[in-house]
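Milestone 3.1: sequence recovery, worked example.
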């Protein structure tokens, strides 16, 4: 369940996902991470006798009527020689599982194959994986790219070569079954990015600069690959206020409100409502700040209500001059949306 709820859908051109039942008679599964254990277990892991690789999960879910083939496809370094490309061209659709593993990113010593022996030096995906996807695209068959990683990576490098992109992270022992449930539409994806996906390391302050300015969704206002909280769904939703935020009088108050979410798409799905606060203009104030979220289940054609409660005391900020917590006077914006950049509803409260 944890793996299922964490997978993030980043791209889905022409709603190629989920796979319609009986639409594809043959599926090619390939990629260095498709049958491997490392992309499942990640760092600091135990072991289990019930590991399900991505290739195994997809094969089991496809059933005996679908011809599923597997090939490693590439390693992490060779960008000229690939396996399974011909077979992919003969299949109806390809699922390419690529990306990083814990030996290519992580703490020094653990990530012993990383270029720097530990922390990443770039956002790049392995060049061999990008080249393999480029070769797959030449076959003019649909490609679903599944990316494994534990951090921000350069999705833009593979975006032209994939019709759909899923970020699976390092999902654990049941990662293969979780991926299959999403690809075959048993569940609509509702994972959301817990970090901002920057376009370049050049967008960030120097590594030895510990100031917050320009870091995270709270202080970065440049262009992003994907904003904090981003994630697509197989369904669509409409938001409206059921109860708008009320007035605030003192620190003991709470801001209470509720939002109705209607599922306007074609399948049951979870939606993740994200609550952000925009503060009055003052020194060191964030651009916005996540103060809560609600993951709610909805049936197609119907709605559900998400209730929020924010103690006013949680809006206080530390004043460097007065050396105490302060509730700054001014206008506070209550923002409800699907990510830090896609705001659906907005209301304001005034603190005097």
């Amino acid at each position: 369940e944890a793996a299922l709820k964490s997978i993030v859908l980043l791209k889905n051109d022409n709603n190629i996902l989920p796979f319609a039942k009986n639409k594809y008679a043959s599926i090619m599964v390939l990629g260095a991470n498709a049958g491997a254990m490392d992309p499942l277990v990640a760092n600091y892991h135990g072991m289990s006798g019930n590991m399900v690789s991505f290739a195994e999960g997809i094969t089991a879910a496809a059933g005996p009527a679908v011809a599923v083939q597997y090939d490693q496809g590439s390693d992490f370094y060779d960008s000229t020689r690939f396996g399974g490309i011909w077979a992919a061209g003969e299949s109806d659709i390809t699922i390419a599982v690529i990306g990083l593993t814990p030996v290519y990113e992580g703490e020094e010593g653990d990530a012993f194959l990383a270029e720097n022996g530990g922390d990443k030096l770039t956002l790049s995906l392995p060049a061999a994986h990008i080249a393999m996807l480029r070769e797959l695209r030449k076959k003019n068959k649909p490609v679903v790219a599944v990316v494994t990683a534990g951090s921000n990576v350069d999705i833009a490098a593979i975006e032209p070569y994939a019709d759909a992109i899923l970020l699976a992270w390092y999902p654990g022992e049941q990662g293969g079954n979780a991926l299959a449930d999403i690809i075959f539409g048993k569940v609509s994806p509702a994972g959301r990015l817990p970090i901002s996906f920057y376009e370049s390391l050049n967008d960030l302050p120097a590594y030895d600069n510990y100031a917050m300015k320009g870091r995270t969704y709270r202080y970065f206002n440049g262009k992003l690959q994907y904003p904090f909280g981003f994630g697509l769904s197989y369904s669509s939703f409409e938001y409206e206020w059921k109860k708008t935020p009320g007035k605030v009088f003192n620190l003991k108050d709470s801001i209470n409100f509720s939002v109705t979410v209607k599922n306007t798409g074609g399948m049951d799905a979870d939606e993740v409502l994200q609550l952000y606060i925009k503060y009055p203009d003052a020194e060191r104030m964030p651009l916005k700040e996540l103060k809560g979220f609600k993951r709610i289940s909805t049936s197609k054609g119907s709605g559900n209500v998400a209730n929020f409660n924010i103690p006013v005391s949680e809006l206080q900020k530390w004043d460097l001059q007065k050396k105490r917590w302060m509730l700054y006077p001014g206008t506070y914006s209550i923002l409800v949306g699907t990510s830090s950049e896609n705001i659906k509803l907005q209301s304001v409260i005034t603190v005097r």
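The first strand starts at residue 8 and ends at 12. The CA atoms of residues 93 and 141 lie 6 Å apart.
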